[in-house]
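In response to reviewer comment 3 from the previous cycle, which asked for concrete evidence that the modeling workflow produces usable outputs, we include below a single protein chain processed end to end. The sequence was submitted unchanged, and the resulting structure tokens are shown without manual editing.
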Amino acid sequence: MNPDTLSSLQQAMGLAGAVACLALSAAGSALGTGVAAASAVGAWKKCYAQNKQAPFLLLSFVGAPITQSLYGMILMFKMFGVAQAGAALLVLGIFAGAAIGLSAFYQGRAGAAACDAQAETGQGLTNYLAALGIVETTAIFTMVFTFIAIGKLAA
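The workflow returned the following structure tokens.
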């Protein structure tokens, strides 16, 4: 294979890894917000059926998994700078995106439980947000450690 073709292939694999990181992070955000939104709608329905005021703050639980899409986007832009790393960046992007996406999905599941509990009891907001924050920490750690790995690829 000629060097120009090999270089182009490596660049394409690196770019694919960067995009995979964003795509997998965003997929997790979509799944997580979807699960939490469905629970919020159900919780609001219960409130309306009982002639209780529906708590607007359930949207904070629904929106929590969105931030993982941002982490994936930030990593994607950083990965663009080292796209020549090729297959290594492709693998890194897939695994980092999957970890961030899973964090978003499970944060959405926790948010769904928080929606139900908050609507039913009207109590525990700070505890629920703290629990969601702990799940989010996994995505933040993944982003930070991936930055370190990208730095090693660039060296």
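The chain has a mean pLDDT of 96. We consider this sufficient to address the reviewer's concern, and the full set will be provided in the supplementary archive.
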